[in-house]
Amino acid sequence: MIEGVKHIVAVASGKGGVGKSTVTVNLALAMAAEGYRVGILDADIYGPSQAQMLGVGEGVRPQSAGENRFKPLEAHGIQAMSMAFLVDIREPMVWRGPMVAGAFQQMLTQTVWDNLDYLFIDMPPGTGDIQLTLAQKVPVDGAVIVTTPQDIALLDARKGIEMFRKVNVPVLGVVENMSLHICSNCGHSEPIFGEGGGERIAQEYETQVLGRLPLTLSIREQVDGGQPTVVAEPKGEVTATFRDMARQVADQIRGQGTEGPEISFSE
């Protein structure tokens, strides 16, 4: 188990561009709004985005907490650790897989989390080194899969679900992002990426749709500006959806008992 952390939830997607980091930060903030102590680990080594989404200024570095250990930064009441806090994010990370996996492991083991109920891990897209390192090293209580209703995204979401099943991590459910576009001028709604995709995949894998999120300008503007929707519009409809998702995640993990699953992974 990671010291100072009770439960770990991985937020993943089979492909990039489906809004996984936006969902992660809002879900974490919603969980905090439900009264839990929450942290985020940004495991996307090549493209860390949680620093900007949480409004942490460029060049802000974590404080040392003894030899080779550091304290997470705090933003909007949650603890956070990201590669963006440790390197110059304007420089590309030209690293091979083992270096990436090593950096991820360091962030996992050298961050001094302060008594967290939930640590959300914002996973990089795909099913590569980071995912395998996580499966081998960490007792993950559950995974949330983010997809859009588009067939091509669903294809990749299936891979994400299969991967977690292979390493005995329960899939808590699917978040269908960008499920409906509502015109900001006339209010007309249209499922521009298709519809019912999250439902189909949930049925196929005997899991559930945790929630559906609209494709709106405000959600994107808020995270880009470091004020995610749950903070910017605490009484809004989108925040209510995230709060509901957070409750479902907490209920499912509570239902598993206190112990996370045993993860075995053979080379």
UniProtKB/TrEMBL annotation:
<keyword id="KW-0547">Nucleotide-binding</keyword>
<keyword id="KW-0408">Iron</keyword>
<protein>
    <recommendedName>
        <fullName>Iron-sulfur cluster carrier protein</fullName>
    </recommendedName>
</protein>
<comment type="function">
    <text>Binds and transfers iron-sulfur (Fe-S) clusters to target apoproteins. Can hydrolyze ATP.</text>
</comment>
<comment type="similarity">
    <text>Belongs to the Mrp/NBP35 ATP-binding proteins family.</text>
</comment>
<comment type="subunit">
    <text>Homodimer.</text>
</comment>
<keyword id="KW-0378">Hydrolase</keyword>
<keyword id="KW-0479">Metal-binding</keyword>
<keyword id="KW-0067">ATP-binding</keyword>
<dbReference type="InterPro" id="IPR027417">
    <property type="entry name" value="P-loop_NTPase"/>
</dbReference>
<feature type="binding site">
    <location>
        <begin position="14"/>
        <end position="21"/>
    </location>
    <ligand>
        <name>ATP</name>
    </ligand>
</feature>
<dbReference type="InterPro" id="IPR033756">
    <property type="entry name" value="YlxH/NBP35"/>
</dbReference>
<keyword id="KW-0411">Iron-sulfur</keyword>
<dbReference type="Pfam" id="PF10609">
    <property type="entry name" value="ParA"/>
</dbReference>
<dbReference type="InterPro" id="IPR019591">
    <property type="entry name" value="Mrp/NBP35_ATP-bd"/>
</dbReference>
<dbReference type="InterPro" id="IPR044304">
    <property type="entry name" value="NUBPL-like"/>
</dbReference>
